[in-house]
Amino acid sequence: MTQTNIAILTVQGMSCTSCASRVERGLNATQGISGVSVDFKASKVHFNYESSALLDKATGVLSDLGYPAQVA
Questions:
Q1: Per-residue pLDDT for 2 more than 80?
Q2: Rounded CA separation 13/31 (Å)
Q3: What SUPFAM superfamilies does this protein's entry cite (predicted)?
Q4: CA distance 29 to 41
Q5: Which end of the chain has a smaller Cβ tally under 10 Å, C or N?
Q6: How many angstroms separate the CA atoms of 26 and 22, rounded?
């Protein structure tokens, strides 16, 4: 069984539900990431990931979407 870790990222630039949906879709499309939950009002995203490399991948995906992120 693969160990699952929980990440909380602070995301810049999310100002509406459309932004939150874009962030959610981007992370859900990343293999090894699951359980994505976005709170655009708090500028946070929570998700489960399988390896530390996926945490870096997630921040890269968000940056590519125009939403720079860092570990909260």
A1: no
A2: 24
A3: HMA, heavy metal-associated domain
A4: 23
A5: N
A6: 6
- The answer to whether 45 and 71 are in contact (CB under 8 A) is no
No. of helices (H) and no. of strands (E), the chain: 2, 4
For the chain, the average pLDDT equals: 94
- Taking the domain 5-71, which CATH number applies? 3.30.70.100
Looking at per-residue pLDDT, the higher value among 4 and 48 belongs to 48
Cα–Cα dist 68/55, whole Å: 13
Closest CA to 33 of 44, 20, 41, 24: 24
Q: What are phi and psi of 56, to 5 degrees?
A: -65, -40
The residue written with tokens 């997630």 in the block is 58
Which DSSP letter does residue 70 get?
A: E
Phi, psi of 44, rounded to the nearest 5 degrees: -125, 150
| Span 19-25, average pLDDT | 96
